[in-house]
């Protein structure tokens, strides 16, 4: 099978690219290489005969059509997005461009070619916060950050193409994902790398916000299964049922690394901070998927990866990221 993976140089996209290539598929990656895209994530496969990389923007209609024409993918998986809530609070423009307009460009282009499946990777954040219970796929969306609102737009736009044009769309809503190669602005890799360096771990507010954490390869396996067995026009929640509050995760990271708990420092909360995300994933469980990596094991593996790959994240943290970090955290302390 030929698969076009957009955003394949990012965190999840690069894991998926490597897994699906190993499973015998041909993979074409289209990635703009924004601050979050990193060719280092694909270095093991860069010379693989079934791998092709295009640097470019999913908003670029000409380029997208050229790739669809020349490479002839049967499946498109749209991972490409601006993905960090805190950045969307600072400036949402790129989120609207990529997560909304970019999704539109891909959906439009896909109509002109014999695509069998278009997977739109959405997020649990489109439902908004839920104090108790868990969201089902049929529940209403109530996004509350510019990031989640832009993702909700992409999610519903993809659905509209199924209803209106019978485009072969499936929408995935994964919970919070963690693992190796995640950009160190996100909670878990930020806390791991700061702890390794003996720097404070900036915990927003009271740290009692709850997230559901899934290891990245478990998500990639769910996507492989959905490509085989998913029903067109459907939405699939992909949850880990591993809900923990942020303080618990921070304490676990510090404990595994053998560092002092005093590194955890409460700072000013995120504006509009969603208190709890929770989804039921009975639909994807019924397809035969289940997560294989528990949180303890996944955190240990992730921490080990960051310990073994210091040049990967040190280069990022010392580069243009450091300006963002100063801006983001200066007003919190
Ligand atoms: P990431 O930020 O690590 O990677 C995003 C990738 O998209 C980067 O390689 C970047 O260069 C590329 N990109 C950005 N704008 C682009 C554009 N206009 N054209 C082409 N490429 C572009 O993100 P991630 O964490 O790997 O997330 C992948 C997808 O999964 C996103 O759609 C995200 O919303 C979704 N998601 C992520 C999580 C999570 O916890 N990480 C959870 C649920 C859903
Ligand atoms: P994040 O990784 O940004 O994902 P989400 O998209 O779920 O917001 O953050 C996960 C949780 O960690 C979220 O509740 C915000 C919190 N957090 C902190 O407490 N401190 C931080 O420095 C960051 C980046 C996140």
Features:
binds nicotinamide-adenine-dinucleotide, Rossmann fold, binds thymidine-5'-diphosphate, 17% strand, alpha/beta, 7-stranded parallel beta sheet, 333 residues, 3-stranded mixed beta sheet
Spans where pLDDT lies below 50 across 5 or more residues: none
Task: Report on the biggest sheet.
Answer: 7 strands, parallel
Question: What multimeric state do the chains show?
Answer: single chain
**CATH superfamily membership of the domain at 2-177 and 215-238:** NAD(P)-binding Rossmann-like Domain
Distance between the termini: 50 Å
Q: Could you estimate the helical fraction of the residues in percent?
A: 40-55%
User: Could you say what the CATH architecture of the domain at 2-177 and 215-238 is?
Assistant: 3-Layer(aba) Sandwich
Name the bound molecules. Answer: nicotinamide-adenine-dinucleotide, thymidine-5'-diphosphate
Average pLDDT for all residues: 97
| Structural class label | alpha/beta
Number of strands: 12
Tally of DSSP helical segments: 12
**Overall geometry:** globular
The CATH topology assignment of the domain at 2-177 and 215-238 is Rossmann fold
The H/E string reads EHEEHEHHEHEEHEEHEEHEHHHH
**Beta strand %:** 15-25%
Query: How big is the Rg?
Result: 19 Å
